[in-house]
TrEMBL record:
This is Ig-like domain-containing protein. Residues 1-16 form the signal peptide. The keyword Transport does not apply. It comes from the Eukaryota. InterPro entries: Ig-like_dom, Ig-like_dom_sf, Ig-like_fold, Ig_I-set, Ig_sub, Ig_sub2. It comes from Parnassius mnemosyne. Pfam families: I-set (PF07679), Ig_3 (PF13927). One of its GO terms (molecular function) is cell-cell adhesion mediator activity. One of its GO terms (biological process) is dendrite self-avoidance. Residues 58-146, 170-252 form the Ig-like domain. Keywords: Immunoglobulin domain, Signal. Transmembrane segments: none annotated. GO terms for cellular component: axon; plasma membrane.
Amino acid sequence: MINLVLLLVAAALVSAQFSFEANAQIDNTKVDMDNNLQGNLLPTQRRRLRKYVRISIPPPERARFVSGKRLELECEAMGSPAPSVHWLLNDEPVIDYEEEANEIPTSHPSNLARLTSKLIVPSARDGDVFTCVATAGIKEDSASTTIYSEGAETPQLLTLEKLFSIPSKPVITTFYNDVLQEIGTTLILPCRVYSQTEHQVFWQDSRANLVYSNSRIRVLPSGDLLIAGLRWADMGEWTCTAKNMYGKDSATTFLYPTKPRQQ
């Protein structure tokens, strides 16, 4: 049963690439992964994955912002090499606390991944447009959300809302859902966190053991996890947890080590 699940996860990632190359149409609000999976779509030494990126689950086309409550926008992207995501507000880069979350983790040129990015919006005005931009190598894809609000908000009110917002539990804003990468390479699993207060990040390995830094595996200052010399034994679910005094949030990445490709 476990082997079947592994095959389905790996095949789902690769199957999505080939459906993209066939110009599959993307739904306005949500796109499900192709369920017609075939075992022969697993990457092999002879198959070279083409570089691509696509937003598999875009944020909603429109989102309602309620004054005093923060809005969470979510964007999922797939790509080879593993994609990174950054956000724009009215065509300008989102800055402030999101700036750290938008750092680009190192990506191996031959890997394949599905990544989730969340943008926490503590304040917004009617008509604001937030854009999720996914990048993999030189490839790029994007999707936008237009904000609508029932009440007009002045810049002064927006500033006050940022200063006096109620603290809450952390939110993991960037993580891989699934990633395939060659055995023997160095892999970085992203885990970026939004928290209004001091927080801690810890990881559990594929056997649910807490990760303590050693010569091969360590948690980076950003919260990302570095795995050097990737092994077949590393296959499985790796879980990042962020915790502050108000609660915690967790995200799980399924890691599938693959055989090195022949040159």
